[in-house]
């Protein structure tokens, strides 16, 4: 994964340097964020979970770790929505 990220960064730098109308050099292009290395076991677990969900073996092109408050908020909404709230009307 790290080698792939390095290659993509190099290709993006080359594309930015050769595209017309840009004045940035390769040194001015921001360096990509360090990529956390995922273990082979974790990738296999993700692949197995997707295969069980989809019913066929998936082709995984990219795995990104996403950590945003939106996921936490949506998880709380799902859990709270699953509770049955009894309302008594008279």
What would you say this structure looks like, in words?
This protein has 90 residues and is mainly α. The radius of gyration is 22 Å and the shape is elongated. The chain is built from three helices and no strands. The chain has helices spanning 2-18, 40-54, 69-82. Helix content is 51%, strand content 0%.
Topology:
Layout: H1 2-18, H2 40-54, H3 69-82
Q: How does the major sheet shape up?
A: none
Structural class: mainly alpha
Which range best describes the helical content: under 10%, 10-25%, 25-40%, 40-55%, 55-70% or over 70%? 40-55%
Beta-strand percentage?
A: under 5%
> Which radius of gyration do the C-alpha atoms yield?
22 Å
Mean pLDDT: 77
What tags apply to this protein structure?
90 residues; elongated
Q: What does this entry show, briefly?
A:
With 90 residues, the chain is mainly α. The protein is built from three helices and no strands.
